Fold these 2 entries.
Entry 1:
Amino acid sequence: MSDAPPPPPDGLGIFEPPPAPPATTPDLPAYGEAPVARVAHPGRRALAFAIDGVGTVAVTFVVVFGGLILGSLEALVAIFWVPLASAVLATVLTATLGVTPGKWVAQVRVVHVVTGRPTGAWALLRSLVIVGPIVVTIVLLQLLTAVATEGYLPFDPLTAALVIPALLWIAMFVVVVATPRHRGLEDFAGRSIVVGR
C-alpha cells in the first residue's frame, strides 16, 4: 500500500502541475539584436543630437563671452576645450548609461546591437564617427589654405567651417533614415542601436 496522500477533490488544483507554456513564443530579433518595435524613430535621434549640440554651443558661448567680459583673453581657449570636454562626457555617458542629456530628453538610449546593454568601449568608435565631420572640415580647410594661390581663398573659412560639418551630418542622418533598423554609420562602427526608453 502506498504512503502517498490521496489526490485532492476536483477543482482545488493543489497538486496540479503548472500550466504548460504557450505553444508560440514571442518574435525574437534576428541574430540576437534588439526588437524592431523598440528601435527609436529618427526624429527622436535628431532631437537628441540637436539638444546636445545646442547645449555645447551655449556652454561655449557663456564661458567665452563671460571670460571676455571679465577681461580674460584666456577664455578664448574654451572654443576648443568645451566642445572637446562635451565629446568626452558624451562618450563616457553613452558607454556606461547609454544616454546623453539630449538622449535623456528625447527618450532614447544607445545599446549594444547584440546584448542590449550599454556599449562600453565601443562608444569610443561611435563618438569618433560622430565628430568625424569636424575633423574632416579642419583637415580640408588646412589643405585648401595651404594650396591657396597668393593667400586668396575663394570662400569664407568661417562659413565653410559651419557649412561642411552640417552637410556631412545631414548625409549621415540620411543613412539613419534609409537603413531598415535606422542604424547610422556611427552605429555600425560602435556596434550599437538606438532604442526608445
Entry 2:
Amino acid sequence: MKLLIVSASQRTPSQSAKVAGYLNQVAGQFSETHHIELCRYNLPWWDGEQESKACDGSSWPLLSARVREADALILITPEWGGMATPILKNFLLMCDMQDTAHKPVLLVSVVKGISGAYPIAELRMNALKNNKLVAVPDHLIIRNAGEMLNDHLPQQSAPDNETTKRESALKERIDYSLHMLWQYSRALSGVRQQHLDNPYPKQQEYSYGM
C-alpha cells in the first residue's frame, strides 16, 4: 500500500510540513510514502477547464501521477481564519475522480493554539463530493503545533512535563490513526477493483455527488 502525504501551508518553513515529516517517518505500515509540500510546486489556479491544469510550467502532471499511484492520502492544512488553505482546496478541485475515487484520506489540521476543528469540518462537508475521496472516521488536530513533534529538530530547551505528556498522547493517537488508515487502504483497494470489474450500469451518470 502506497501513502501520499500532502501538506498545504502556503508558506515555508511551516508547522504543517513539520507534521508531514513526522508522519512520513512513522507510517511504517505502508510500503511507500511520499510527501508533497504544495507551496513548493507551481500549481495554476484552476478555472474549471482541463487545459488550465497543463499550462506552461505547471507541476500538475507530476502531482497527478503521485495521486494516481497512491492507495491512501493524508491531507494536512493549517487553520487560517477558521478555514483550510486555498491552495489545498485548489489541489482538490484539480484532482481527477479517476485518480482519487474510493481512496481513503486522513484529514489533519494544524493550529498554533487550541482550536483547529473548523478546517476538518469544512473539508468533510464540501471538499470530497466530486473527487470521491473517502474520509476515514478518525482525524487529527495538532494543537499548540510549535511545541509538538519536534524530536528531530534542534531544541533550545527541553519540553516541560505537561508538554511531554500531551505529546506522548498525541503520538499514540497518530499511531492509531495511521494503523486505521492502512486498514482502510487495504479494504478499499478491493472496492476499487470491484468498481472496475463489475461496474454499475450507467455508472458514468453518477460521477458527481448530490
